[in-house]
Every structure is written in structure tokens, then in C-alpha cells.
Amino acid sequence: MRRRVDESLANPNRKGRLTLEERGRLAIERENQDMAPPEGDRWSNWVDAGHGPEPLPEWVITEQGACDHELGVLKTGKEADVFLVRRVFPDTGAEVTMAAKRYRSNEHRSFHRDAGYLEGRRLRRTRDMRAIEGRTSFGMNLIAQQWAIAEFGALSELWLAGVPVPYPVQLYGTELLMEFVGDPDGTAAPRLAQLRPEPDELLDLWEQLVSALLALAERGQTHGDLSPYNILVHHGRLVLIDLPQVVDVVINPNGRDFLSRDVHNVAKWFLAHGLPERIGDPEHLLDLLAGEARLT
């Protein structure tokens, strides 16, 4: 059975539990503070952002007086760049390192994947759909928001379902702050493509991947762009990333094609690194996932 969560968890316009009056009071307090954040940093915008699913992990910092420190670029891409950000609350010394994914402004974006992935997704406002289909400046900005909203919502639902994905901390505009998969010193976990695992580790990673794909298929979904380059491995734990294009394989008319491509992309890597074909047969895995998703 496909599990659903409260849609408010994936709503980026949700303002949290503070009332408008409380938010106004806190904003005034911030303006009246004697010290501003150091140059190049910013105050935490947690209060005004959409929040990740509850219960919040203990490491999430929600205090109004926290500030964010930019630590550098983790990854650049055609649709978005990912930065390393450290959020610090000086009063207690609490700090956490996160990944900030920022979808680019319309003059720099190249959303080459939109058409196929947006099949089965429709905006309620026809004016917005016309702008997107016409690739106007307004439409391109809407596409950026759609991708950010889609990834935030997907991560929220998948994290609640137990799928190995980064925890989505908050969404503010087209910036998604999420759990940083790596070490406290800012060293990012390697991608699967960078590894040369021993046979036992290879088998364990394959089993973790199959479990993750089955969890997606149970929900009628597939990653949509899966490859060894958007799978991280942190101290033996496999984590799926880059999920704005999660595909509903039942609604999308090309759903089975997306599922097949995901399976063959990753199975090819595992087989090339020594996984026995009787274990990593892509056609067998595809049939297993299609059955779980109830594809005919």
C-alpha cells in the first residue's frame, strides 16, 4: 500500500508555529540587536521558511538568534548549486553543518529535463502553466520554484517513509537546506562512482540500494535520474540524493521507462565492479520493482 503524509509537511509556504505577531516581534528584536552577523554571513531564516517533517532531529537549530556561515561550494550543476553552510547559535555554542541547494536564477538556468518529468504534474493556475510551457521569464522562475518545492516535498515524504535520503531542514524561496552527508569537518561523503569496494562491501551496498528502490516502488515511485553519481556512501551507509524529479511511475505515461533506466544505470556499475550477474541482473530487479509498484 502506498503511504501518504500530511500535505502540510511538503508545503514550502507553511510558516511554522509562530503567529504573525510573534514573527513581527522577533524581527524587531533582531533589528535592535547591537551586533550583526560577520560580513558574508546571514541571520538564520528558519522562522520564515517551510520546515521539514516532525519530529525534528535533535541537531536542527531553530533559535532566532542563530546565524549561517558560508563555507564554500560543494557541487555545481545545470539547475542548481550546492553550498556548505554552518548554522551556529552563539548563546549555547550549538552548531550544525548543512548542505544548501540553491536553484539558479532564470538567466543561468537550463532545465533540460523538464518536459518528461513534468508529465503527470499540473499546476492549478492555467496562466502559470502557459508561462511554463512558453518558457517566459516568469515561467522559468516558476520552474525553479517547482523543482525546489518538488525536492523538498519528496525528501520530506521519503524521509518519513524510512528511505535513505538527507533530512530536509527547511525551504526558503528556491533554497533548500538539508542534512549534510559527511563528516563534521566538512568532508563530504564520496559518491558511489568514486568507490572501489571489496566484494563484501559491494554486496552490502547492492542490498541497501535494492531495499531503497523497493521502498520507492512501494510508493509507486522511482528516483527518475539515478546513477552512481547521485548516490552517496557515508561510512558504509548508502544515501540517495538529487531528488527533485522523483517520478510517479503509475501516473507518468513514461513511468516504466524511467524505472528501467534507473535500474540499468546502477546495475551496470555494480556488475562492472564485480557483482555476480545472478545477483545484479537488472531485468530481474526491474520486474521485482514493477511488481511492487503494481505496473501492468
Task: Note down, in words, how this protein is organized.
By secondary structure, the chain is an alpha+beta fold. The chain has two domains: 63-188, Phosphorylase Kinase, domain 1 (2-Layer Sandwich), CATH 3.30.200; 192-292, Transferase(Phosphotransferase), domain 1, CATH 1.10.510. It is 34% helix and 19% strand. It has eight helices and eleven strands. It has helices at residues 20-32, 114-117, 126-133, 137-160, 199-218, 255-272, 277-280, 282-292; strands spanning 42-43, 50-51, 67-76, 80-89, 94-103, 168-172, 175-179, 221-222, 231-234, 237-240, 247-248. Helix 3 crosses helix 4, helix 5 runs parallel beside helix 8 and helix 6 (255-272) packs antiparallel against helix 8. The radius of gyration is 20 Å and the shape is globular. 32% of the residues are buried.
CATH class of the largest domain: Alpha Beta
In CATH terms, the superfamily of the largest domain is Phosphorylase Kinase, domain 1
Strand content: 15-25%
- Structurally, the number of domains stands at 2
Outline type: globular
Could you say what the CATH topology of the largest domain is called? Answer: Phosphorylase Kinase, domain 1
- Could you tell me the number of beta strands? 11
What is the straight-line distance between the termini?
16 Å
Tell me the helix content: 25-40%
Assign the CATH architecture of the largest domain: 2-Layer Sandwich
Number of helices: 8
Main sheet characteristics = 7 strands, antiparallel
Instruction: Please list the strands of the largest sheet in the order they lie side by side.
Output: 1-3-4-5-7-6-2
Order of helices and strands, N to C?
Answer: HEEEEEHHHEEHEEEEHHH
The secondary-structure class comes to alpha+beta
Q: Report the uncertain regions.
A: 1-16, 107-112
Average pLDDT works out at: 84
Radius of gyration: 20 Å
